[in-house]
Description:
The chain is an alpha+beta fold. It has two domains: 19-93; 117-206, no CATH class. 34% of the residues lie in helices and 15% in strands. A six-stranded mixed beta sheet has the order 3-2-1-6-5-4. Bound molecules: zinc ion (2 copies).
Amino acid sequence: MSLFDLEPMFRVLNELPAAGEAAGGYPGFAARFQEVLEVVARERPDWAERVRKLENLGEPELARLRENGVVGAGSSEDALLEFALWHTLRRYHRSHAEGPLPEGPADAVCPVCGAEADVAYLDEEGFRFAVCRLCDARWPVPRVRCLYCGEEDPKQLEYYPYEEGYRLYRCKGCGRTLPAVDLRETGRLDLPRLRAAAVEMQFLYEAGAVEE
Ligand SMILES: [Zn+2]
Ligand SMILES: [Zn+2]
């Protein structure tokens, strides 16, 4: 992965200590948010200016953003704010499940925390699993079905190969994309790397730089 080289940042963010374990809710959210911003500014000096604009956000404002569902909706005008909120929330929601869980309530919905899947993988036997964007829990999903709208016609489900087993699924029905990795080609599941690749694949797809 070389286009943006985001992998080191995803790795450091993933290693930040979990937050609020026993307490429930989001104690110390502003402080945890600041720590995420520090990592982003350190790993991406070219974003430091944009990070500085977010440094004064206090607890009430962050709570409001959290409750308004700014995170993950893809609707925020400030992608960096959304990114930092996402990685702060992840520190409160980490799942401790070792292996994949039983099926979720819906293909795209995490059976642990109810958040949506953001990436997927094919295991050593070619079965597909979705991964929760917030808590990293994993659950089985059909290989030929759109997670988001249920489309099952293979002609409506395309995918764009990227490098080394990475691919971007896309549903022609609803237009949603799903970045994924085939572990038969890459070995063990590496989520920071998959999420870094996901940003690149999405960028290349939107730029029209990939072919089916
Ligand atoms: Zn979850
Ligand atoms: Zn769909």
